[in-house]
């Protein structure tokens, strides 16, 4: 683990030059650089910290008052050898977690895509990572979705037109639209005036499905087709928050889990009701209702 002092100094220089879009346009090599207090975030290389994934960020602590980003150069090289330049996206993604103080991968992905889209010279990074995610295809991680999900998210957030998408992504987007029109969705409902935001990974019948959350805007979760009958719904890694109208949020509880049964009759919307009797008991309970 060591500080990347040289890289940081280079970054500073570029930042000073990037005073406006017209000036940035005259300097086609200007890369994306962090703005505001994100400039104070130390970026370190440490594959142990990242657990051999490409990057990880730590939210501010006493030791790291602005948070910190750790990168794994081995993984960066691997990613760049497959799709040259793609690894930069993952650095910006980590800044996204810190800029928005969010744990959500989809939110950090969108932030990174929008940030990179504002810098003309980063179009190469965006295209590279788009292809990298398409290469991952249907590989699924409940926190991120599939490679296709990430590609779609990046393409849309960055405003990359469908004409520029790899063909398998166009096909995936069409299939997803059909799923949305015909499939079942899950919506979150909380029953406590104070604990008004939550995020969790949903499993159905022993299979991870994805993230259900209303923390950074409500997100409905697309479910696989539920055949009529009994289903086991499990919520893992449940984090609870109190969210102010200003968007400020404070954590209420973390790493809870709960499960319930759902008797499906094949209707299209499942509401997951969540109740929390904290903090003494840390008791979380969920109930799933099909509503239409
Ligand atoms: Zn992330």
Protein model, in words:
There is one protein chain. The chain has 292 residues and is α+β, with helices and mostly antiparallel strands. It has 2 domains: 2-177, no CATH class; 184-290. 33% of the residues lie in helices and 31% in strands. It has 8 helices and 14 strands. Strands 1-2-4-3 form a 4-stranded mixed β-sheet. A 4-stranded mixed β-sheet has the order 10-7-13-14. Strands 9-8-11-12 form a 4-stranded antiparallel β-sheet, with no helix packed on it. Helix 5 crosses helix 7 and helix 6 runs antiparallel to helix 7. The protein is globular. Residues 93, 97, 105, 108 line the site of zinc ion.
How would the blueprint of this fold be written?
Layout: E1 2-3, H1 5-17, H2 21-26, E2 43-45, E3 55-58, E4 68-71, H3 73-82, H4 87-99, H5 105-117, H6 123-136, E5 140-141, E6 145-146, H7 147-158, H8 167-182, E7 184-190, E8 197-204, E9 207-213, E10 221-223, E11 229-243, E12 249-264, E13 269-277, E14 283-290
Parallel strand pairs: 2-4, 7-13
Antiparallel strand pairs: 1-2, 3-4, 5-6, 7-10, 8-9, 8-11, 11-12, 13-14
The structure holds zinc ion.
The site of zinc ion has 4 residues, from helix 4 and helix 5.
């Amino acid at each position: 683990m060591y500080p990347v002092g040289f890289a940081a100094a280079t970054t500073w220089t570029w930042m000073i030059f990037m005073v406006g879009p017209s000036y940035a346009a005259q300097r086609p090599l200007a890369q994306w650089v962090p703005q505001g207090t994100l400039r104070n975030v130390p970026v370190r290389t440490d594959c142990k910290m990242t657990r051999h994934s490409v990057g990880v960020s730590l939210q501010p602590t006493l030791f790291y008052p602005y948070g910190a980003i750790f990168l794994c150069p081995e993984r960066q090289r691997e990613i760049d050898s497959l799709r040259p330049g793609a690894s930069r996206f993952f650095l910006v993604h980590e800044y996204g977690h810190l800029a928005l103080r969010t744990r959500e991968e989809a939110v950090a992905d969108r932030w990174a895509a929008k940030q990179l889209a504002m810098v003309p010279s980063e179009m190469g990074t965006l295209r590279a990572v788009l292809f990298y995610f398409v290469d991952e295809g249907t590989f699924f991680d409940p926190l991120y979705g599939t490679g296709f999900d990430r590609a779609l998210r990046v393409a849309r957030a960055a405003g990359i037109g469908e004409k520029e998408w790899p063909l398998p992504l166009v096909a995936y987007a069409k299939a997803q639209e059909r799923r949305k029109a015909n499939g079942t969705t899950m919506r979150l409902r909380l029953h406590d005036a104070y604990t008004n935001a939550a995020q969790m990974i949903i499993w159905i019948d022993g299979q991870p499905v994805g993230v259900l959350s209303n923390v950074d805007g409500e997100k409905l979760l697309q479910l696989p087709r539920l055949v009529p009958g009994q289903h086991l719904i499990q919520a893992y890694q449940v984090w609870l928050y109190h969210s102010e109208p200003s968007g400020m949020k404070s954590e209420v509880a973390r790493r809870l889990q709960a499960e319930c049964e759902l008797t499906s009759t094949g209707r299209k919307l499942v509401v997951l009701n969540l109740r929390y009797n904290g903090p003494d008991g840390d008791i979380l309970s969920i109930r799933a209702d099909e509503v239409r």
